[in-house]
Amino acid sequence: MATSGAEERGGLEAAVRGGLRVLRERWTRGTRERGGTAAFAGPPRPALPGAAEELDPLQALPIDVQLNIMSFLSAQDVCRLGSTSCYWRAAVQDPLLWRYFLLRDLPFWTSVDWKSLPDVEIFNKAFSEVSDNALHNYMAVYKKSCPQGRRSLKSSRPRYGAVTSFLQSLVTQAEPRFAMFGPGLEELDNSLVQKMMTCPEILLVTGLPQRQIHGIGSGISFQFNNNQKFNILTLYSTTSVERRRARAEQAVAVNRMFYLENSTVGNQQAVHYNVIPQVKKVCEVVDGFIYVANAEAHKKHDRQEDLARILAMTDPSLGPPNRPLLVLSCVSHVGVKRIPCVYMAHQLQLNLLHQPWMMQDTVAATLAGLPSGIEWLLEEADCKNAQ
Questions:
Q1: What 3-state DSSP class applies to 292?
Q2: Can you point out the beta strands (E) in 106-257?
Q3: Which of 174, 156, 254 is nearest to 213 (CA)?
Q4: Cα distances (angstroms) measured from residue 271 to each of 238, 293, 338
């Protein structure tokens, strides 16, 4: 049964809102609690001003007040504060503070991948100062999960990758090919594919469809960053006439790429799909997949259906294992309210997949976010081919 976007994301979103409220209440009631036992011990203070470190006015404030002040800063600013003294180095590592940052910032992250998706249990469980601090290093989770942290880790890798890419470009090789599918190709008001074909400053079209891949067609060839060429084979679930009719009637068109197989897991009926023979031939020859998800919050979505179709397309029996999957969390244009990226990854249960994946926020009208996703996909496909 399809549910509305607001209903399906309610669990994680409510956990985030509730966590923020609880943490803020703890800080604001700290003044009352200081009459008895301190709510937060905080880092040890210097014994005397003018000893190893001079006690500055901000440092002299109660620890709960310090945490409240730091909660209004960005994570980057707090890290800079930690570099100013031994006291602040210890203070900024408070797990309560970093859980607050994690709950506050994750709805605004524009990408997440298979290595960085935070565990949903971090948000759903109640906060207990003793047990929770022992279980989770929220500062480490934040640094691993936020897009800025992933980019800094990537930039710190050895530079020989660029040389390897150049040497590989001297060797004639087939363009990597990717199968692109998903409801975001068909349900949005703006066409992602049409924009990709008419935006040469982002993606340059270098080849139009020819019937080469087992009667399905070779797709469209693009050139990325004036260098690497690749091929995208777009797979639609219905004809263009059926898609237009479904949009006009606000109905769901029948997906002709898959057929349903009933399966039972335990005592429950599970949704299991297989791909039709023509699509199966495509899955056997591509180097990776692009799934275009509809991330518009006001639309109805059935994420169980989405996951079942992703699993059918990426079935390891249809081709080489560990082929990368790029998930474009797509909306029509900038003004549309979207489901946050981390929420989408948990809704689609991408943690159940066995191959590398990345989810990237994308806007169909402007292609915002698409270059980052394509760059990741080409790098992952290149790594698999090298192996």
A1: strand
A2: 111-113, 177-181, 203-207, 220-224, 228-234
A3: 174
A4: 20, 19, 26
Helix (H, G, I), strand (E, B) or coil at 42: coil
Query: Nearest 5°: CA angle at 36, between 35 and 37?
Result: 130
CA-wise closest residue to 376 among 154, 181, 206: 154
How many Cα atoms within 13 Å fall on the side-chain side of residue 44? 5
Strands (E), 67-202: 111-113, 177-181
Q: How far apart are the first and last CA of the chain?
A: 42
CA angle 318, 322, 327 (to 5 degrees): 95
**Spatial separation of the C-alpha atoms in residues 72 and 159, rounded to whole Å:** 37
- CB distance 351 to 321 below 8 Å: no
24 Cβ partners below 8 Å, 6+ apart?
Answer: 71, 100
User: Side chain identity at 36, as an amino acid letter?
Assistant: G
With 0-12 CB in 10 A as exposed, 13-18 as middle and 19+ as buried, what is 84?
exposed
Tally Cβ neighbours within 10 Å of residue 13.
16
Per the CB < 8 A criterion, the answer to whether 212 and 219 are in contact is no
Which residues, 6+ apart, have CB-to-CB distance to 254 below 8 Å?
237, 238, 242
- What distance in Å separates the CA atoms of residue 364 and residue 245, rounded to the nearest whole number? 21
Spatial separation of the C-alpha atoms in residues 95 and 90, rounded to whole Å: 11
Residue-wise pLDDT for 143-160, tens only, equals 999 988 776 666 444 444
Edge-to-edge order in the sheet of strand 357-363 = 111-113, 357-363, 325-331, 288-294, 177-181, 228-234, 220-224, 203-207
DSSP structure class, residue 350: G
Bigger pLDDT: 214 vs 76: 76
CA–CA separation, 70 and 118 (whole Å): 23
Structure-model confidence comparison of residues 256 and 11, the more confident one? 256
CB-based burial, 125-155: b 16+ in 10 Å, e otherwise: eeeeeeebeeebebbebbbebbbeebeeeee
CA–CA dist 343, 17 (Å, integer): 13
Per-residue pLDDT reduced to its tens digit, 218-259: 589 999 987 889 999 999 887 777 777 777 776 666 788 898
Per-residue pLDDT, 150: 77
